[in-house]
Amino acid sequence: MAGGETAVIIVAAGRGSRAGGDVSKQWRDLRGRPVLAHTVAAFSGIGHIVLVLNPDDMALGLQHFAGKVVLVAGGDSRNASVRNALEVLDPDIFSTVLIHDGARPLVSSALIARVRAALHTAPAAAPALAVTDALWTGAEGRVTGLTPRDGLFRAQTPQGFHLAPILAAHRAFTGDAKDDVAIALAAGLDVAIVEGEEDNIKITWPGDFARADRILGGSMDIRTGNGFDVHAFTEGDHVMLCGVKVPHSRALLGHSDADVGMHALTDAIYGALAEGDIGRHFPPSDPQWKGAASHIFLAHAAGLARDKDYRVSNADVTLICERPKIGPHAVEMAAELARIMGVEADRISVKATTSERLGFTGREEGIAAIATVTLVRP
Ligand code: MG
User: Fold this and answer.
1) 269 Cα–ligand 1 center, Å
2) Which domain range does residue 338 map to?
3) If you measure from the C-alpha of residue 323 to the centroid of ligand 1, how many angstroms do you get, rounded to a whole number?
4) Alpha carbon distance 28, 33 (integer Å)
5) Ligand 1 mean position, distance from CA 225 (Å)
6) pTM listed for this prediction
7) Residue at which a domain ends, from 153, 184, 217
8) For residue 15, how far is its CA from the centre of ligand 1 (angstroms)?
9) Rounded to an integer, what distance in angstroms lies between the CA atom of residue 378 and that of residue 375?
10) pLDDT digits (tens, 9 = 90+) for 283-332
11) Last residue of a domain, which of 217, 249, 267?
12) 263 alpha carbon to ligand 1 midpoint, in Å?
């Protein structure tokens, strides 16, 4: 096979009037972004995406997907649209192609992987679900007969193909086809069936939006972040640790109040959100944060998580020092962190360890802290 890369063609050139609404279904909002944005995101890890749009939708396509996909104008029929996209794929680069309905935004990475894996042993592969309901024929509101369901499947996408044979099949095909498997079969290609998914629905009717919304609502997002911080000792008579003032023969040196535990926890939250670190949100070069109380940072990170619909499921902070002794203050520290973050105290842990007199913490040159946090978006 030439090349070896996999291309993705997402077909969204139809007007989709059956789904109702003023705009065509692929541009309607689903949980804050167009249906098509969900579909494109599902394939973003695969590589090169060619998005086939109605010529009237090109400006919308640029607005949402500039730099992320190659836009191609669709033709008069579905197969004409797919062929337009196939013709722009360089066979020296791509050896396989996945062709997917733009109106199937809920396709899972596992399903995509099954189709790609099947292409190792077959020139074509497509997902499908065996029909499990009884099938009737009917007329005028009455059942007129029964149809055996054995060997019947409901076809889905992405349908995967080796590029050269599906391009040849499209070039040879005349007429109208429901999908690309039909075109592959017309050319005599062997098509492997892989297991489809009930959630991989094609949004067709108005009620499908509500169903897609429910399915997306059930996909919980769980994130873990970690943070690490160190501050050196300096002259002083107390340290601030996890929001609690602890009497000590030294103080911690730092640009803010040097609360090393709270800094580690704040960075863990930013990390879980992929939102950088404290330095990005509160630049040390900005004098307004000099000597700032660290609870400002932690409250900001927790607020950012809330804004993104995450809640703090738990956090665990470990302080690493020989002295001061943390144990007597640990419960108060956890309660203070919980209060600042606006979560229940039993979700927050503060504990301590020494480094067995080894290293900078062992020599009592400073205190280190590590933190882990789990954020959950239901
Ligand atoms: Mg710090």
Assistant:
1) 14
2) 221-377
3) 18
4) 8
5) 16
6) 0.62
7) 217
8) 54
9) 10
10) 888 888 877 899 999 999 999 998 777 899 999 999 999 999 999 999 99
11) 217
12) 5
